[in-house]
Design a protein that fits this description.
- This protein starts with 16 loop residues before the first helix and ends in an 8-residue tail after the last helix.
- By secondary structure, the chain is mainly α.
Length: 860
């Protein structure tokens, strides 16, 4: 022996497969003499013989015996003389005789233990390719993993995937396939490692009469029995890494595939196993699986609703498919509604029989039983979030423990595939898992304890949003007091970016918490949290998402007879409607808010809501009413020593009318507000953007560009997407006026993207119209007209008159340049009519110019 390896052999000395491997290795070394290499490479042998490299590897490593012609080609390629070929052929014949004489090698003893191929298998193309690729890498290199760990939640189709692949890959394993179900997550007692080894030893012909009793000896015996054999072992339903480790053969050419609901981290870390994490089915594959074998498969919206509520789990899809086979065609919508129900009996829809022994509930139960006490407690309380995501801090609050303990429990749930990692410090719970957790919460925890956890979570969320607002928008205090007597201690945010990141991550959770507080009768928590969450959303530019929370706030306030909270809810809804271009809804809710404020004698609220109403009316095109109302409001606000952020819109309205000096006067008043002077909050950004607009209108393009570049940087740093979009759009106009069309086009596109990310359709389409004007002046009227079409549809549906008028002017110019004079004239006339009705001075002149003479006209 040299270095612990096999003894060197000559062909005449070969008696076993190991001898043959040693002799071939010696031949490879001899053939490489003088080349500077230790032995001839597998690639060179493959090129010389025409045999695939992976096949050559299996021959020279002893993974399988080569046919006589293949061995002859290999030894000739390695420089054997004709006289030596006969010696090699005789060696191969002796090894073949030895193999046939052995108990493990009789063709009749080759095990083929795979269960039946799963019926109705769909999708998983990427995962199937990955399994095949791992085997190919294991064939090509001894350092590549020969163990594959297929992990995932119960019911996701791990066994089906492995069996489907194994049946297709049987040709790769000439010495057979072994299968053992360890039953770790199923009814009955799990099959322990020692008993599993007994079955495997019997399958490979080792017998059972004199088997040792201890697991280590049986494992060693199994490794000896399969050494040098090209086989596949499927170990199904393993509890954890220790459960499966004794079954690993530890020999090249032997592939082991393990399935488990556990992440099998130790198997990956110590044995170098390749982990394949099986995810839920995509919607297209889910619909395909749902339809297999049905005479009238579900289609359309109802089919997607049903598939979505099955949460991508093949088990759930198969159960629902069985129900569909018994349903009448008209029952499809009823079944979809049943699956979408949030009732306590929802999981019953995913059972095959009344016993519940086969279904989603039983699958989840076995995973739940495997958890430790604290991880199980966290699992049960996940539904109290009422949102699909949570972080370590929320878990800490649910358990009332330190962060380190909460992190350990989260890690256990991830390892058990009951939680997914959604990002750094962020975790996701899927729909059916949450439904089972809610089932356990109701069964195992007292109502008083549940209520205590709910209050603890509400306090934490309330304090967290307040901490975020302290750095995001410190100039605006909350109007509604938080509930007295309770408070959660949270760390301050070090910078606006950190606060923004947390608020974005908590959006769904905050909405769900407000709704939960309303249902639980915790009215003060409901409206206090809703107001603060809305303010954070406004600063981030996504107030449209908060509508469900503010509606819950409105309903709770009405039930409690709290006029101030109801009025504030009406105002927040109205501002959200205006932000998403639902102007008539905004007008209606502001009217309600004003009525409530007057009845309560709240003069400041009346002023604020009337100012907001003036903005809405002005956007609808009634500039005279809006400006007159705003002038009265600003005078009254000065008497109360209050800032009215809405009055900044007066600058915009006066510019729309073409009244530059009036716009300057309003801007001067705005600059007197403390928050603008101090450069604090979103009001400061709005004011600076309007001042830049005045500079644009007065022709000071360079100063406007410089100011807007600064504001855009500040908005981006603060996470203010709405302000960023507005600043970039005006910056595009400034650059276009300066002749820097490349920068102008880039800024216009960035403005539209920021508006889209902020959920502000108005910002997006205003940016599109600016981009259209740039395209038009660059000689691309077709591109300009295409941009105008969607913007015109939006502005008409939203009743935003200035945007409609401006879009019509640019569309008219584009049609004129395309040679469509009648359409150009029609658009220009429509624009002129709006401009005259609403007193849009500059746009009136631009539309008239198109009608009078089709020359170049600038719109601003």
């Amino acid at each position: 022996m040299v270095g612990g390896g096999p003894a060197e052999r000559e062909p005449a000395e070969v008696q076993s497969r190991d001898d043959l491997v040693a002799a071939l290795d010696r031949l490879r070394q001899r053939a490489a003499r003088g080349s500077g290499r230790g032995r001839v490479s597998l690639d060179r042998i493959a090129r010389a013989t025409g045999i695939p490299r992976s096949t050559v590897h299996s021959y020279v490593r002893g993974l399988r015996l080569p046919p006589a012609d293949a061995l002859d080609a290999i030894v000739v390629a390695l420089g054997c003389a004709p006289g030596e070929q006969a010696s090699w052929a005789a060696a191969l014949e002796r090894v073949s005789d030895e193999r046939i004489g052995g108990a493990s090698a009789s063709p009749s003893a080759v095990p083929r233990q795979l269960p039946a191929r799963p019926a109705g298998f769909v999708g998983r193309e990427q995962e199937l390719a990955e399994l095949t690729a791992v085997v190919a890498r294991a064939d090509a290199s001894e350092d590549a993993p020969a163990v594959i760990a297929v992990t995932g939640i119960g019911g996701v189709g791990k066994t089906a995937l492995v069996l489907h692949w194994a049946h297709h890959a049987r040709g790769l394993f000439p010495d057979g396939e072994l299968y053992v179900d360890l039953r770790a997550f199923s009814a009955g007692q799990a099959l322990e490692s020692a008993d599993a080894l007994e079955r495997l030893l019997r399958a490979v012909g080792a017998g059972t009469a004199e088997l040792p009793t201890d697991v280590d000896s049986r494992a060693a015996m199994f490794r000896s029995a399969v050494a040098g054999r090209r086989m596949l072992l499927v170990v199904d339903n393993a509890r954890d890494s220790e459960h499966v480790r004794p079954l690993l053969p530890g020999t090249t050419g032997f592939i082991t595939v393990v399935t488990s609901r556990d992440a099998l981290r130790s198997l990956v870390a110590r044995e170098g196993a390749h982990r394949l994490q099986l995810e839920r089915l995509r919607m297209d594959a889910a619909l395909q699986l749902l339809s297999i074998g049905l005479s009238g498969p579900p289609q359309g919206v109802e089919a997607e609703r049903i598939a979505a509520r099955c949460d991508g789990l093949p088990l759930a899809l198969r159960i629902v498919r069985e129900r569909l086979s018994r349903e009448r065609p008209g029952d499809l919508q009823r079944l979809a509604a049943e699956l979408e129900s949030e009732s306590a009996e929802r999981l019953a829809a995913f059972e095959l029989d009344e016993s519940g022994g086969e279904g989603v509930r039983s699958v989840m139960e076995w995973s739940y039983r495997s958890l430790g006490e604290e991880a199980a407690l966290l699992f049960r309380r996940l539904p109290l979030c009422l949102a699909p995501t949570l972080d370590v801090d929320v878990a800490r609050v649910l358990l009332d423990v330190e962060r380190s303990a909460a992190r350990r429990s989260l890690d256990h749930l991830v390892s058990a595939n009951l939680l997914d990692v959604a990002g750094p410090e962020l975790f996701r719970v899927h729909d059916l898992v949450a439904a089972y957790a809610a089932d356990r919460l109701a069964a195992e925890e007292a109502p008083a304890e549940v209520e205590a956890v709910r209050l603890r979570l509400l306090e934490y969320l309330l304090s967290t949003v307040e901490a975020a607002l302290a750095v995001l928008d410190p100039a605006r205090p909350a109007r509604l007091a938080r509930p007295a007597g309770r408070s959660a201690v949270v760390d301050p945010f070090p910078a606006p970016a950190a606060a923004k990141e947390r608020m974005l991550a908590y959006t769904d959770l905050l909405i769900a918490a407000v709704l939960d507080a309303s249902r639980a009768g915790l009215a003060e928590y409901c409206w206090a949290l809703a107001e603060r969450a809305w303010r954070a959303a406004w600063f981030l530019g996504n107030v449209g998402l908060m509508e469900p929370a503010v509606r819950a706030m409105e309903e709770a306030a009405i039930r409690a007879g709290a006029a101030e909270a109801e009025g504030l809810a009406c105002r927040l809804l109205a501002i959200g409607f205006a932000h998403t271009a639902r102007l008539r809804d905004a007008e209606q809710y502001l009217g309600r808010a004003i009525t409530l404020a007057r009845a309560a004698g709240d003069r400041l609220a009346v002023l604020m809501d009337t100012a907001n109403l003036a903005v809405v009316r002005g956007t609808l095109g009634d500039l005279d009413w809006a400006i007159a109302a705003m002038e009265r409001i600003v005078a009254d606000a000065r008497a109360l020593e209050e800032e009215l952020p809405s009055c900044i819109t007066l600058v915009e309205f006066e510019l729309q009318r073409g009244e530059l000096e009036a716009a300057r006067r309003w801007a001067d008043r705005v600059l007197e507000f403390p928050s603008v002077r101090q450069g604090v909050g979103s009001f400061h950004f709005e004011a600076q953007i309007q001042i830049a607009a005045i500079e644009l209108a007065s022709g000071d393009l360079a100063a406007s560009r410089k100011r807007l570049e600064t504001i855009a940087r500040e908005c981006e740093a603060a996470g203010n997407l709405d302000g960023l979009s507005a600043a970039l759009e005006r910056l595009a106009v400034a650059c276009h006026g300066l002749g820097d069309d490349a920068a102008a086009e880039s800024f216009a596109r960035e403005a539209g993207e920021a508006g889209w990310r902020a959920g502000a359709q108005s910002r997006r389409f205003v940016a599109d119209v600016t981009l259209a004007e740039i395209m038009l002046d660059k000689g691309r009227p077709a591109a300009a007209l295409e941009l105008c079409r969607d913007a015109l549809t939006w502005s008409r549906e939203a009743l935003v008159k200035y945007a409609e008028c401006r879009t019509l002017v640019i569309a008219a110019r584009a049609r004129r340049d395309l040679g469509d004079r009648p359409a150009a004239q029609a658009d220009a006339r429509a624009a002129l009519e709006i401009a005259e009705q609403c007193v849009y001075g500059q746009l009136r002149d631009d539309a008239a110019a198109v009608l009078a003479e089709p020359g170049a006209v600038r719109t601003r």
